[in-house]
Amino acid sequence: MKIRVINPNTTCAMTETIGAAAARVAGPGTQIVATQPAGGPVSIESHFDEAVAAVGVAEEVLAGEREQTDAYVIACFGDPGLWSARELTRAPVIGIAEAAFHMAAMVATRFSVVTTLGRTGIIAEHLLQQYGFAHLCRKVRAAEIPVLDLEHDPDAALRKIIEESLRAKHEDGIGAIVLGCGGMADLTDTISDAVGLPVVEGVSAAVKLAESLVHLGLKTSKHGDLDFPRPKAFAGQFRHFSA
Amino acid sequence: MKIRVINPNTTCAMTETIGAAAARVAGPGTQIVATQPAGGPVSIESHFDEAVAAVGVAEEVLAGEREQTDAYVIACFGDPGLWSARELTRAPVIGIAEAAFHMAAMVATRFSVVTTLGRTGIIAEHLLQQYGFAHLCRKVRAAEIPVLDLEHDPDAALRKIIEESLRAKHEDGIGAIVLGCGGMADLTDTISDAVGLPVVEGVSAAVKLAESLVHLGLKTSKHGDLDFPRPKAFAGQFRHFSA
Amino acid sequence: MKIRVINPNTTCAMTETIGAAAARVAGPGTQIVATQPAGGPVSIESHFDEAVAAVGVAEEVLAGEREQTDAYVIACFGDPGLWSARELTRAPVIGIAEAAFHMAAMVATRFSVVTTLGRTGIIAEHLLQQYGFAHLCRKVRAAEIPVLDLEHDPDAALRKIIEESLRAKHEDGIGAIVLGCGGMADLTDTISDAVGLPVVEGVSAAVKLAESLVHLGLKTSKHGDLDFPRPKAFAGQFRHFSA
Amino acid sequence: MKIRVINPNTTCAMTETIGAAAARVAGPGTQIVATQPAGGPVSIESHFDEAVAAVGVAEEVLAGEREQTDAYVIACFGDPGLWSARELTRAPVIGIAEAAFHMAAMVATRFSVVTTLGRTGIIAEHLLQQYGFAHLCRKVRAAEIPVLDLEHDPDAALRKIIEESLRAKHEDGIGAIVLGCGGMADLTDTISDAVGLPVVEGVSAAVKLAESLVHLGLKTSKHGDLDFPRPKAFAGQFRHFSA
Amino acid sequence: MKIRVINPNTTCAMTETIGAAAARVAGPGTQIVATQPAGGPVSIESHFDEAVAAVGVAEEVLAGEREQTDAYVIACFGDPGLWSARELTRAPVIGIAEAAFHMAAMVATRFSVVTTLGRTGIIAEHLLQQYGFAHLCRKVRAAEIPVLDLEHDPDAALRKIIEESLRAKHEDGIGAIVLGCGGMADLTDTISDAVGLPVVEGVSAAVKLAESLVHLGLKTSKHGDLDFPRPKAFAGQFRHFSA
Amino acid sequence: MKIRVINPNTTCAMTETIGAAAARVAGPGTQIVATQPAGGPVSIESHFDEAVAAVGVAEEVLAGEREQTDAYVIACFGDPGLWSARELTRAPVIGIAEAAFHMAAMVATRFSVVTTLGRTGIIAEHLLQQYGFAHLCRKVRAAEIPVLDLEHDPDAALRKIIEESLRAKHEDGIGAIVLGCGGMADLTDTISDAVGLPVVEGVSAAVKLAESLVHLGLKTSKHGDLDFPRPKAFAGQFRHFSA
């Protein structure tokens, strides 16, 4: 089974972090292909970054289709381009935000999200609402660290995430923490040990969900809303999407 | 990894059906222990049946705890005794209704449920509301077959389920069907082929989710709401629960 | 008119407290039959306790049916076994949580719940969501007293409940308090006097609602969802439920 | 105990119908004072009718206050002036729409409303949403009869209401009918017999709820939102409201 | 284009404030007719005040209809009599609360409301729920100033509003402030400068929305719910409404 | 005032249709700049088309910023790239779906959407949910016409839209129709005349809302969620976004 884990930003170090986290939990028969778009932002910290990254995600899914991919993971907590990616393939596509929410809902009655920057909290809130998990999430919290600090100053980042997670534990009436950034994928155990709560991290969660769907033979429905896009012409820089 | 798949009713044939469905999707290192309570209803078709079955589920979790169980599946579509079971163990516990809803949400934008009897539809509706999936479910439909007909008259039952699923496909604007009874666990492929939609069945879905949580090291949170019950005395027929 | 007030736990002293509270508000023609199951937990402080108690509630409803009962009250704030009980009788069945929520909604725009232990708050939250009162409840608060302390150390318990209720009054922007435990049934007036707010207590509320439904000739609907359970075999310790 | 049952419209015959329905269910110690405003519409079939009637309701509550009234019922299904009335008194005030919804929620899992004119359905929908019962109501249906036809051509009106109620029974998946007009208060038994479902009628429901609140000593909260209006000057035709 | 801006209270000074605010933003071809009912409360600070004012609003719409009015604004933050007013005319009718919510939703993801008295917060909460904006509003806050203090002690009122708005900015995670009273219409710029956030004020917002609807040729739908009220007799002080 | 009306697809004829519709309703001092991205799909009929178009929208907003633009309209009914666009400018940005929903909410209590292809209905449903208008929309309907048929076979398209709108009028219990595609911008009057309901079209609605916000001095909040994106490097085909 081949799972393409797409880091929607263009920072190789983060792709490696994500790929390693994915590989760590992958089953014996699973091949993890960790990749990133050729074009796009070095980190995703805004709706604009997300909008650009969504095209890169689509490119990566199309590339994956040429390589017989069994499932896809979109490894940014805003699930950029999720519905679009699902249209481009019969294979299951899992976003790490949804993955984390699904898993958290099975080990606790209520959780809080700890993300990087406060300004991206609204993206998590919109997803919680769209997916139906809003009532399970007590609070979307931010450690107020730029995404790339997870790579550049990991110790300080880790400390802030733990501090915010402990505040969540003591103030929010929760049973679990959801980590709100793909770049935190290697920190799960450390945070969980420090906080004393189940900590749900989306990359690993998504890999297991992707494997599960493949094992179950469940594919993205091509009846109705998520059918392949109607072939059509694209202009300019996107003309390679024409069909 | 040992997963205890609990059929909450006391019909052995259904336990076998469920166990076989679980084994079919289980990973190579997974041992499926399919069981049923010593006491309880032969089928679950009402809130009363569910209430009695929930005690059987608790008994079975406690039995599982004495055998080093890694995860539990509650294989009745009403998820009877789910929260109670989660309190009794650190292991993950998955209900097949929630499992099916989680999986369906990842392969389609909207789904319909096809269950056995119309009168149990309200149980599915309550779960959809509690879990947060109500807006994803277009309709809870019933094939109007008693649960045990799935064992006694499987051909007629299958035909009715397919008919109702086709109605759902053509009338509800959906991308997937969720099967609303553990006893349908062996019919998934046939129904999916006949209907031409992804068909999500809860027993198999729950097994993969349980395996996933175990692989991720995610356990039922013991901080707060789902902590082990406070030890106390129980009277009468339940005095063996005393601690 | 005969109302069976079922204390779902097996602590006689609490049954007496509850029965006295029920009798205090019952109309002149109403006979209160306060009872408790022969088997079950001495107090209800978890989902597991609730699951076991729900069977006791069913037993008590079936007992009541043999005695021409006009209505039932389930006197534990989690409303354990409510839907199951409704299936077993044509008589109205009222849970004390729902009763308190209904009444509170008629005397204030917003209320807070003050319950015993924090861990049971999720049970109240689930009920508020299911019944549709979530938006009326500002906060589910806990005095952090074990249920039986209401019997064993009533003065300390009362003091903590009043303190938490005063916090609710001053911080939550509410007009009324809902008491979140059947064992508080005798404290209503004292708390209301101390807090200066309407205090809604479920046992008394449920008795008046039960009387009201009986006077109106409104019975549990036997059309559809709440019809009598289909007769079937039960195994083991529950074989007496067979029909 | 004195309950003032306010018919918000100015048609005496309807006041009599409503008063008789109220008296029929009132307890032995309850005095029903059925009244109507001196000014206002002869029937309430629009938001405008409701707006005018709300002032009449306020006048009637103020009149009731001068006569030591223990509780008030607003006997129009739109609950016109409910929150305003609650501010004007410490006594409980019950609208017949909310009363019917509360009662229906205790005898069935789902209900439909059968009202007079389709155009007033939106008023019921707004109330269902505000009170939190929207998910319990499958459909708001109209028999398409003007309100006063209930007085002028009662047989035809009754026939249409029964027809619409039967459609609700067969198409909506419900367990109970809520009658959506105070003028139907004398038809409950006939409709229930013809339809074979519990039929909840608001005037009788509200009287029992009002009695219940009085017996429980629960009064409209004067802490916060529903406190007496701040005294102030009123101009023109409303100067008698000045204080 | 003639827009009738109805101040629902009877304080001339406030009508002038509101009229001036409306005129300030009106387009070149727009004539603002600022008016107030002959009868009603001098300020609106309760549901009762609102109920009385709603009749005044209806009178003013009927007066406007005799003068070829193109659109109406109801300039009190509770939108009193909004649905009633819409029935009385084909012209668009805009409430200032809804207008402010609509506009705020377009310039920020989340906002807080700053109103006058805490007791009127529930009115805003009910509107947010009915209109569908509840999830966009973090908090309804009160500066705890009586409405007429906006006229009598404007400096103190302004100071309190700014203080509360700053608390909203720093504590609520918002991007905009909605002013919760028509009497604040002249303070918008000062508050916005002091607080450093977009401040949405309903009178000006409603005038632009009214103009927009007129320019688009969009009128209040007369199909169904908002059709003209059925002509009927009114008694007593309201007999002039008879038709 | 300069409003940039961005047609997110790359079909010039549709840009002209949209620009003409915008110009028709623009105020005397408003300059409409109708534009389209250099790159992207010729029509938008899927999530994938939307994802690509969202980048084009961002490009167009950045282009608009270099020309002193006062407000932006995104003229595709899925509001592609709306939040991203808002981050890139202080000027107001309005999507035509949200614009149509806001306007429809002010002229009717309930509406239905009539869009092009059934598969895009889910996009409208997601927006209705996110914005808070889901309860106001009875049904999202599709005329089942590809977007470009609006240009290529306008008569047939118009006929189908009218037929579907009439079905909505007669079956849905609505007061208004919302047109679900920017390409229908020139058909509003014809459809409204044929259907006999207010028909709300998003391009014209958005232009008036944009003008309104500009006149009110309300700009996209730069405090928090919608602040300018943090400057950062972009790789590959998107490196021109680097800052």
Write the layout of secondary structure elements.
The structure is a homohexamer of 243-residue chains.
Chain A (H helix, E strand, L loop, with lengths): L1 E5 L5 H14 L5 E5 L4 E2 L5 H19 L5 E4 L7 H6 L5 E3 H12 L3 E5 L5 H11 L5 E6 L6 H4 L1 H18 L4 E5 L7 H8 L3 E2 L1 H15 L17 E2 L8
Helix pairs in contact in A: 1-9, 4-9
Largest interface: D-E, 49 and 50 residues
Largest sheet data of chain A: 4 strands, parallel
Assembly type of the chains comes to homohexamer
Rg of chain A, alpha carbons: 17 Å
Which regions of chain A have little confidence, pLDDT < 50, spanning 5+ residues?
none
Overall pLDDT score of chain A? 97
Number of strands of chain A: 10
Q: Can you offer a commentary on this structure?
A:
The structure is a homohexamer of 243-residue chains. Chain A is α/β, with parallel strands linked by helices and 243 residues long. Chain A has two domains: 2-95 and 204-241, Rossmann fold (3-Layer(aba) Sandwich), CATH 3.40.50.12500; 97-201, 3-Layer(aba) Sandwich (Rossmann fold). Chain A contains nine helices and ten strands. Chain A has helices at residues 12-25, 47-65, 82-87, 96-107, 121-131, 149-152, 154-171, 188-195, 202-216; strands at 2-6, 31-35, 40-41, 71-74, 93-95, 111-115, 137-142, 176-180, 199-200, 234-235. In chain A, the strands form two sheets. The first copy, chain A, has a four-stranded parallel beta sheet, with helices on both faces. In chain A, strands 7-6-8-9 form a four-stranded parallel beta sheet, with helices on both faces. In chain A, helix 5 links the parallel strand 6 (111-115) and strand 7. In chain A, helix 4 packs across helix 9 (202-216). The first copy, chain A, is globular and about 55 Å long. The mean pLDDT of chain A is 97. At the B-F interface, loops of B face helix 5 of F. Chains A, B, C, D, E, F: This is Aspartate/glutamate racemase family protein. Chains A, B, C, D, E, F: Pfam families: Asp_Glu_race. Chains A, B, C, D, E, F: Belongs to the HyuE racemase family.
